[in-house]
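Quick one:
INPUT:
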């Protein structure tokens, strides 16, 4: 499962090499395994990307977000036709009846208002009890437009002297930047599960290619709001509309903050995938289910990600042409699987959790050469940090490997 993001703000050339995204900059190259990447934000006009890398990103389900001259997200590149039952899901999505859509929208609005109440509480602002009462009054399809009533109350309580439509207010610029990142992640998840982002439940604009993404985005908006409040408390100025590089990098970190879905704590990125999956049931009888948006993001807890390092040590014979060929194939496999060469015959890879390490260790086992000695060692990220480098220095790729958001 993808768990890493890249925010690029300095001149760079992005290419594909050995199944990895290689970022070339003046201070050295950085290699990032494509299968670990979920999103890439190109926040500079001085970045180039090869077509082969762009195609590889689409094959791996990586969403690429581009920004305009003012560093505001202005577009995204998404993969399509990645689900094994794409046509069947699309047909059922399009034929979904009005009662189903109204029930789903009811659950979305309720979840949004509950999350808004949680945001007020966690930010130390008044008004949460009133929002929780409003959430109980949301009917099927929200005919009373409780969502709008809750929004007026919410913004009044969250910020002082705030007008959501004021483009000159930096707070609005920060909110819009964060919403665009969350929207991209949701669109990525919807496409991965065969849903058409343009066919919405409530949003139905003929000119909007992401109506469904905008529907599903609603319960995620309070996560952006809370992050903006935290950034403002840390010193960001509410005056002026221009976002600093630090603002943009901090907001790009949105998808790795913690979210509580039911009893499980996960990253916001994983939550978007869970919500998209809840809309689709892998069944030949019914691919859409009416309880799809029952998954509710009720709290915003921090999550301590658990990373492990998987080392591969090998000593392979190279006396004959055939042996050299096998040794080269094995080294190329390790590179394509995201391993970094720490030194000769010592490769390592950071994995997210025990399951990730097990999966990559099994891949190594399946690609072993016919002769030689190959060993694997798994250590935690904390244990890896205790390693003493007695001579030489760690590569830039090695230093950045455990980071969930890579800033370059």
């Amino acid at each position: 499962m993808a768990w890493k993001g890249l925010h690029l703000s300095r001149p760079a050339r992005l290419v594909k090499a050995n199944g990895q995204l290689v970022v070339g900059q003046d201070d050295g190259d950085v290699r990032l395994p494509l299968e670990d990447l979920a999103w890439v934000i190109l926040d500079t006009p001085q970045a180039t990307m090869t077509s082969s890398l762009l195609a590889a990103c689409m094959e791996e389900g990586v969403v690429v977000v581009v920004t305009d001259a003012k560093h505001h997200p202005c577009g995204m590149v998404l993969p399509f036709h990645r689900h094994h039952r794409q046509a069947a899901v699309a047909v059922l999505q399009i034929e979904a009846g009005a009662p189903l859509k109204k029930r789903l929208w009811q659950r979305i609005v309720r979840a949004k208002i509950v999350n808004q109440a949680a945001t007020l509480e966690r930010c130390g602002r008044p008004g949460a009890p009133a929002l929780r009462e409003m959430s109980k009054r949301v009917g099927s399809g929200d005919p009373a437009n409780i969502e709008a009533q809750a929004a007026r109350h919410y913004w009044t309580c969250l910020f002082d002297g705030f007008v959501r439509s004021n483009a000159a207010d930096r707070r609005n610029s920060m909110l819009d930047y964060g919403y665009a990142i969350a929207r991209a992640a949701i669109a990525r998840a919807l496409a991965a599960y065969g849903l058409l982002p343009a066919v919405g439940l409530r949003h139905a604009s003929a000119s909007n290619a992401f109506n469904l993404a905008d529907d599903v985005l609603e319960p995620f908006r309070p996560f952006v709001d809370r992050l903006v409040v935290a950034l403002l408390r840390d010193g960001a100025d509410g005056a002026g509309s221009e976002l600093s590089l630090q603002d943009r990098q901090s907001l790009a970190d949105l998808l790795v903050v913690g979210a509580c879905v039911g009893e499980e704590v996960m990253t916001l990125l994983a939550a978007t995938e869970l919500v998209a999956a809840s809309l689709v049931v892998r069944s030949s009888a019914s691919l859409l289910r009416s309880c799809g948006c029952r998954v509710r993001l009720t709290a915003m807890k921090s999550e301590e990600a658990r990373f492990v390092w998987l080392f591969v040590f090998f000593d392979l014979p190279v006396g004959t042409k055939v042996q050299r060929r096998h040794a080269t194939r094995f080294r190329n496999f390790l590179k394509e699987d995201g391993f970094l060469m720490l030194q000769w015959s010592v490769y390592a890879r950071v994995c997210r959790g025990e399951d990730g390490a097990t999966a990559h260790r099994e891949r190594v086992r399946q690609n072993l050469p016919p002769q030689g000695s190959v060993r694997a060692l798994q250590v935690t990220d904390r244990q890896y940090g205790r390693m003493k480098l007695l001579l030489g220095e760690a590569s830039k790729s090695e230093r950045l490997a455990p980071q969930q958001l890579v800033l370059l």
